[in-house]
Amino acid sequence: MKKYFLTDEWKVIEDGFDKSYNRVTESIMSLGNGHMGLRGNFVEKYSGDSLAGTYLAGIYYPDKTVVGWWKNGYPEYFAKIANSANFIGIDLKIDGVTIDLAEVKFRDFKRVLNMKEATLSKSLVVELPDNEIKIEAVRFLDQVNKELALIKYKLTPLKKSVQVELTPYLNGNVKNEDANYGEFFWQGIACTAKDSLDVLTMKTKKSEFEVSTAMQYQLNKKAQVTPKQAENYLARKISLTAAKGEEIILTKYIAVCTSRDYPQSEVPEQAEAKVKAAVKQGYTKLFAEHKQAWDLIWQESDIKISGDPAAQQGIRFNIFQLNQTYTGHDPRLNIGPKGFTGEKYGGLTYWDTEAYCLPFYLATHAEKVARNLLLYRYHHLEKAKENAAKLGLKGALYPMVTINGEECHNEWEITFEEIHRNGAIAHAIKDYVDYTGDKEYLVKYGLPVLIEISRFWADRAHFNQYKDKYMILGVTGPNEYENNVNNNWYTNRIAVWTLNYTLTTLKNLKNNNSKHYQKLLTELTINPQELELWSEIAEKMYYPYLKEYSIYAQQDGYLDKEQKTTADLKQADLPLHRNWSWDKILRSPFIKQADVMQGIYYFKSDFNQADIARHYDFYEPRTVHESSLSPCIYSILAAELGREDKAYQLYLRTARLDLDNYNHDTDDGLHITSMAGTWLAIVRGFAGYEVKAGLPTFRPFLPQAWTDFEFKLNFRGRRIKVKVDSTQSHFDLEAGDPLKIKVYQHQYELSTAENLSIKNK
Amino acid sequence: MKKYFLTDEWKVIEDGFDKSYNRVTESIMSLGNGHMGLRGNFVEKYSGDSLAGTYLAGIYYPDKTVVGWWKNGYPEYFAKIANSANFIGIDLKIDGVTIDLAEVKFRDFKRVLNMKEATLSKSLVVELPDNEIKIEAVRFLDQVNKELALIKYKLTPLKKSVQVELTPYLNGNVKNEDANYGEFFWQGIACTAKDSLDVLTMKTKKSEFEVSTAMQYQLNKKAQVTPKQAENYLARKISLTAAKGEEIILTKYIAVCTSRDYPQSEVPEQAEAKVKAAVKQGYTKLFAEHKQAWDLIWQESDIKISGDPAAQQGIRFNIFQLNQTYTGHDPRLNIGPKGFTGEKYGGLTYWDTEAYCLPFYLATHAEKVARNLLLYRYHHLEKAKENAAKLGLKGALYPMVTINGEECHNEWEITFEEIHRNGAIAHAIKDYVDYTGDKEYLVKYGLPVLIEISRFWADRAHFNQYKDKYMILGVTGPNEYENNVNNNWYTNRIAVWTLNYTLTTLKNLKNNNSKHYQKLLTELTINPQELELWSEIAEKMYYPYLKEYSIYAQQDGYLDKEQKTTADLKQADLPLHRNWSWDKILRSPFIKQADVMQGIYYFKSDFNQADIARHYDFYEPRTVHESSLSPCIYSILAAELGREDKAYQLYLRTARLDLDNYNHDTDDGLHITSMAGTWLAIVRGFAGYEVKAGLPTFRPFLPQAWTDFEFKLNFRGRRIKVKVDSTQSHFDLEAGDPLKIKVYQHQYELSTAENLSIKNK
């Protein structure tokens, strides 16, 4: 596959401009700082194909929903992250002619995403009939002062002097491309122009989020300035003459404040104050702090790969985007599948967060970051209970897709039936507690969630008198290429796990602190019969089984399908979801993403190597990995089985998914949550890292294509550096108290005083 | 239940006006003549809640579709019968004030649907501060000259003379209520006013059907007339003075011609010519012919019930609406679930036609009427093949919902999976051939359809190596409260039936006319291996079975559901589709409409009484009959089992479905296709009428609530009158050659010379 972007270990470089690829490049070149995000759009006018995108965390519009046929229980709206006021724009006129980058001739074009510094820069030379203008622009979204965005825009006439008109602007007339009825999500509140400062205030309709965007600029030369104003639009027209070779530098400071963070009446003045303070501090100082913050992020979460620059670029890109999307500073936020890089999926939260992203944040950030991801669900518990009640069920059903705790998705087979998401949300509590040892969280915030999820499972299962078993009918498992199946093994298994974990947690609490236990029972109106029922369901759960293969069946009737493997598929069939009708997909044996194997991944300790191998050998050949969340799970399990080449091959399927536009859909935005999957494949897979019984354990190997790889782990106050080379694995405690770790099942003591090197197996 | 309409054997009478019930009344009072239909709207201005509806057979707009999530294979559009130019309107001003029936005071209001004459009339006295105006209006859609509509409008001042302004108009500015994006489906082509004649020509967008509506009027008094014109609007303002007691009579003649029937360029002149001819003939003559045509219809299709006027009104209403909706004059037309009475379901064709309506038309109309219903599908064979190909399958898959042969529905579980519809379409061929003996149709038009449907079944089934059986996975059966199930017994059974019937037909052809047979094999590229495969599939089809009950299972896994019956439901649960979420419905055992029992109804001769009873006793208590197509099937089977009371109870559930607004949804339009179900319940159920081996057979009984009932049957050139009273059944051959019939399994000879009376069992 031809690579569009140049390979560089810290940069993504577009060298020369391909119009037809622009939407992909815009996605790739996205910037974000957890508070806001921008696609890599040009600041200048660009009349070509483009998705201009400015997104603010948590600012959404409840878009009127669209369904083929309304069904009782469907949500009324689908929340969409609102594409917000364009604040990067700077219109440029040279000698009275507007520069439109889709029309004008230029050379030496470069657009560079610098991942180390989290900047996007662009340079080119515009070729005019009688002149050449060099343009260099760089921008960043401040990682320290998250409400700030800065743009430095340089312009130099190369052949002769020119009349320049630069018009930095704020434009609130922005529509979501993904709006069901083409509605405009915003209403303008105020356009305020004072002295050199502009403040545009807009409010989302219905959801009523108020957003003020303030702008000031600096120019390295005196110029004539005319304020401009129109509906939801503020600008400053700056006119000047630039001599040949003279460098004109415009610095645009932007502050974006929202009523999520301030009382509504204060939002405009906050934005004004922030932008003024920014100008006062100046670009250089702000950038230095921003860069320093990113240095710290990289210090904790970087993975270094030697011997394979493309792999290095790929993993850094993924880690970079994860860190741009979610910083953990606000428990009301979460991680959308597209982050701030596009509008698909409405910018909302899926179970991806718990199942794929949480381990990344646990290992590479302060504990509070992962804790905030968990608290997000804790805070939505009441809404999850309402959601279950809407379906006529007890307990809590977390939504499949949400921004504020309410369900947004509206396909019955997903919304109502893909209930295994509840299991991942419960299991994340265990992951967090096992990793951090934070038992207090478990009791205070974990248990209320676990109990309501258990209630849901208990009510959703029913007793089958003919088989003397409990069953869960009518579900969609992680493999969404099956809908409305009975007894999806993964769902049944994770339901039972939830019940058992909740029961064990309660029992431990009873043994350790019976007073608190009694209080809890009263508070949560738990009675002993309820706990007995949970225990009975857990014991008598039915699991579909394939005698012929001595493995669990994905669901009842799986073996009734015509048994084929991916080897039977033609290239023209792939991806199935584009080439086959839905019914053909559903009745085929092909699996979209790890399903039984997702369960084996979660509950690996319940299976021996032979068990895992039997399941793997049956299901992997039937899996088409048409979810970007699939290969990492198989990669980790292949690594577990010592199938190193297979593990590496599977890792490759998503390692550069967006950078190489592997699925031809990066124009829609990046696959943010699946980026965590490649981190998992390396750290959990290649290094075999897991926390077992409170001990970090490793089973490392080095993929043949690499010289070595290295990463860091946060673990209960320590920072451990792990480096795997072709012969040895090195463990270096960079910070924190000594601790025990296990490597290939042997236990070692690790301290800052002494490095540990273990020969690879 | 309080009845809103007065009971009358030939009329539906609204005595006094209830605004809040107006939409229901408008549905009930609909008129149609197969070419066009009108809801029972007022001619005068009515600013209250109303669905003004004028629909022309076959004139549709391909409305942009709406889906929750696009799936490969979904149709691009959903055809909607376009709500067309309002031609009934007559604005009325009295002394300069517009009469708005939603605002003005009136008394002695009556709206009467006369089913015998197929007219809608209305009378009332408008009470003005200083006067009273009597209004009487009557309209009909001409059953002979199907492009004509006539309205007679009478007005009499009762207290003193008044200035009257009558404005008959044509208004093309009509929108469908059911438009996905609020689009206007029409574009105006021409407004032509000549002398006393107006022609409005409109064209549907995209589908480009041109429709000309021509209007002329007559008035029984000289008046001042001013033509009026606006966009898509033509009118004549008629001003006059009416003396106290003076009867002013306005007769409005309308002709509606469409480019479905004439070359586009001729449409306006055709409408003009038709309306001129109508005026020439005059109201009285046209009405007399219209009435005569309806007399003939009633002579063939009436059911008389003595001793129960409400039942009499109910069945006549149903027969009336069926005859209004489809007359069989045009094989390009079919029967929409709402006919011309509303916009729900887009006015399209479902499998209801073949499964429920065909027997009615076979027994009560000339053979060509049923034949045209079959030809409709024959003409769509190529599109059905394209539809199968879209799903990656061989043969033909007829659409679930269509107007022109292309699929319109867009829920995967229906569109792609409710494939049993193919079976009903195949079976209708057998029904027609068995009834009429028209073997020529079978070979010429039937076989090509049967073969392509067989090819579809053969490709859709697959061989299961583990069970040594063929299976059909991923279907939705007639019971739409199950989606995406495996091995729906009904589907598997009707698939096998199709294969066998096709094979038998081919074999008979081979034996009788081997030359034609050979030609056919070549034409349809059938090879012997293909026939062998069909035969193997038919032999080795898998049928789910419940050993515990010695009955066929609705589908695999049905008994895994929590087994409850309708006795376990609370009133607040019903109807389930309004009160339960879809997942709860799906995993419940409750059955929307006859599914296994639909198969037993079709293939009754394969089961003995005990078999039928076992299935009935298992499935009926689990059936909620939330499709209006369900009770009739159970009623017929109850009758078959000699459970007369049950048969009658089930018949009652739909006998007056719309007249009593039983399901609270008649405001959307009438349940046209299910009306055939009540006819079936009486004729097939109570009278036990079936054609077996070419002989009409009967198993009559009289419901206890009735004194007697009587109906007529067309059968191969004969007309048989059947009357069942409390002791005997009487068979009277009114026309045609002598024939053999069977009553309670005994054979009799019937001739016009002699009546036959048989004691009831």
From TrEMBL, chains A, B:
Residues 691-750 form the Glycoside hydrolase family 65 C-terminal domain. GO terms for biological process: carbohydrate metabolic process. InterPro entries: 6-hairpin_glycosidase_sf (IPR008928), 6hp_glycosidase-like_sf (IPR012341), Gal_mutarotase_sf_dom (IPR011013), GH65_N (IPR037018), Glyco_hydro_65_C (IPR005194), Glyco_hydro_65_M (IPR005195), Glyco_hydro_65_N (IPR005196), Malt_Pase/Glycosyl_Hdrlase (IPR017045). The active site is at E480. Residues 316-679 form the Glycoside hydrolase family 65 central catalytic domain. It comes from the Bacteria. Residues 13-260 form the Glycoside hydrolase family 65 N-terminal domain. One of its GO terms (molecular function) is glycosyltransferase activity. Substrate binds at W351, D352, K592, Q593. Belongs to the glycosyl hydrolase 65 family. This is Maltose phosphorylase.
